């Protein structure tokens, strides 16, 4: 891949790669995700504990967003560690797409996080929507200019996008604007997006993967969700060969695709397991099996924005 790889030694002895982004800064190759889902309301310290455990286990990257409503908990956890030792990603929500709204929105996130800057600030969705539910038709190019303003103001080191498609990124570049350093999208066994990954590799844009486990857990899967599940015999046998768990194998596969996975958990031992994926490599045979599970199946299609002019996904995917 075009991103340059280096290794850092974490507190627990795990060797975690970092990728050199196209602006020269480095992004750790795995992050703790902090989105708990639309139907989960965190307690006052669930996420604070999770972030604390994660950093103690060797994570050096935490991914959050204003809309997750947990930035304050993330901030409390981060105060326990050296700021320069943790890479922080957060995101701009859809009701702050006006260029003039970006810096005030980021300042609010910085106050929540108890820091003077973030390492990476993303446009969460290209879809603008006011708090009353009506659509904001602000061009995402104007929103992107707002992120450039925020970077120039020293409030974020790097800027990127989330849930944008290739054509949207091309439009940013065609307008002579700064190249995003990262694209965050859903990516898992059922949605591997090889064309998009190849595009980002060519453009030297890092790819971050939310919902990296997709539908492997039966409690999260729909009846129509494609296989595999965490108890699939082939997956269990594969994990056993590496003395790992099935979720660890899935995360390792994403890393070998050149992707930065964002696994989320509120359970200490799972958080510790999820970062323990950098001491083995998958065989070509196993990677081919994992590749075969790609069904272009999206778990978060956001149908509610289907008629928005900047809806980013192929509408045929929803049929």
Overview features:
319 residues; alpha/beta; eight-stranded parallel sheet; three-stranded antiparallel sheet; 10 helices; globular
What fraction strand?
A: 15-25%
Strand order in space, largest sheet: 4-5-6-7-10-11-12-13
On the 0 to 100 scale, the average pLDDT is 94
Distance between the termini: 34 Å
Question: What are the low-pLDDT stretches, counting only 5+ consecutive residues below 50?
Answer: 1-11
Helix content: 25-40%
Radius of gyration: 19 Å
Structural class: alpha/beta
What's the number of extended β-strand segments? Answer: 13
Instruction: Write down the secondary-structure element order.
Output: EEEEHEHEHEEEHEHEHEHHEHH
Q: What overall geometry do the principal axes of the alpha carbons give?
A: globular
Largest sheet: 8 strands, parallel
Number of helices: 10
How is this fold's topology laid out?
Blueprint lengths: L3 E6 L5 E6 L5 E3 L3 E2 L12 H12 L3 E3 L7 H8 L8 E6 L6 H15 L4 E6 L4 E2 L5 E2 L3 H13 L3 E7 L3 H9 L7 E5 L7 H10 L2 E5 L22 H9 L4 H11 L2 E3 L6 H8 L8 H8 L28
Parallel strand pairs: 4-5, 5-6, 6-7, 7-10, 10-11, 11-12, 12-13
Antiparallel strand pairs: 1-2, 2-3, 8-9
Helix pairs in contact: 1-2, 1-9, 2-3, 3-4
Account of the protein in words:
Strand 2 and strand 3 form a beta hairpin. The chain has an eight-stranded parallel beta sheet with strand order 4-5-6-7-10-11-12-13. Strands 1-2-3 form a three-stranded antiparallel beta sheet, with no helix packed on it. The model is unreliable at 1-11 (pLDDT under 50). The protein is of the alpha/beta class and 319 residues long. 44% of the residues are buried. It has helices spanning 46-57, 71-78, 99-113, 140-152, 166-174, 194-203, 233-241, 246-256, 268-275, 284-291; strands at residues 4-9, 15-20, 26-28, 32-33, 61-63, 87-92, 118-123, 128-129, 135-136, 156-162, 182-186, 206-210, 259-261. Helix 3 packs across helix 4. It contains ten helices and 13 strands.
């Amino acid at each position: 891949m075009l991103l340059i790889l280096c290794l850092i030694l974490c507190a627990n002895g795990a060797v975690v790669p970092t990728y050199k982004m196209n602006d020269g800064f480095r992004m750790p190759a795995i992050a703790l995700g902090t989105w708990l889902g639309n139907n989960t309301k965190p307690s006052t310290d669930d996420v604070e504990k999770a972030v604390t455990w994660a950093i103690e286990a060797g994570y050096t990257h935490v991914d959050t967003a204003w809309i997750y409503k947990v930035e304050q908990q993330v901030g409390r956890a981060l105060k326990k560690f050296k700021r320069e030792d943790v890479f922080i990603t957060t995101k701009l929500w859809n009701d702050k797409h006006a260029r003039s709204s970006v810096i005030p929105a980021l300042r609010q996130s910085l106050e929540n996080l108890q820091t003077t800057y973030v390492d990476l600030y993303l446009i969460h969705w290209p879809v603008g929507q006011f708090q009353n539910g009506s659509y904001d038709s602000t061009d995402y190019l104007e929103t992107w200019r707002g992120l450039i303003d925020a970077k120039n103001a020293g409030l974020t080191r790097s800027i990127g996008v989330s849930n944008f498609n290739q054509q949207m990124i091309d439009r940013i570049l065609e307008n002579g604007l700064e190249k995003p350093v990262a694209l965050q999208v859903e990516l898992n066994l059922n949605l591997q997006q090889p064309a998009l990954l190849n595009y980002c590799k060519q453009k030297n844009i890092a790819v971050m993967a939310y919902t990296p486990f997709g539908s492997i857990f039966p409690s999260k899967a729909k009846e129509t969700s494609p296989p595999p599940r965490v108890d699939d015999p082939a997956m269990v046998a594969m994990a056993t060969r590496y003395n790992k768990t099935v979720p660890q194998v899935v995360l390792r596969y994403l890393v070998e695709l050149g992707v930065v996975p964002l696994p989320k958990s509120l359970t200490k031992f799972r958080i510790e397991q999820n970062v323990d994926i950098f001491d083995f490599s998958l065989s070509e045979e196993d990677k081919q099996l994992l590749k075969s599970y790609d069904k272009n199946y999206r778990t978060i299609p956001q149908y509610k924005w289907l008629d928005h002019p900047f809806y980013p996904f192929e509408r045929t995917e929803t049929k």
